[in-house]
Amino acid sequence: MFLLRLSEMYLNKAEALAALGRSEEARNDLQELRKRRFPPAALDPVSLEGAALVNRIREERRLELCFEGHRWFDLRRFAVNSQYPFSKSIRHRSIIFTGSGYVDNGYYELGPYEQDAAAYIVPVASDEIEFNRGLIINEQRPVRPLKQ
Q: Does the chain have fewer CB atoms within 10 Å around its N or its C terminus?
């Protein structure tokens, strides 16, 4: 099921306006969203510009759309943004069940987009590759070792 929330539309619009240099409109859209979440006394004004404003909008997006399946696609989109690229290593914890409880087993690390571009690409399904008679291929992804 496809679902587009109003808050996602406000955040998309604010991010696009900020990238176009229309900071005042971007701040207004961000505040419009935040008005619905915070009481008026706790609503601090946003007076950021440029990269700081884009980063604030991205942070709001991360908080607002948490656990909805947007994060990987957002990280990919942020990484290829030519104006305000996002470059960060990401750690994924590995947890195992031992029979009596869960134990932290280490972590896997996803490098920044510049170093690990193949990890930021959704692989094409094998039946699609087969249907296209091998004309499409998936870029080889590096094996990630478990780190302690």
A: N
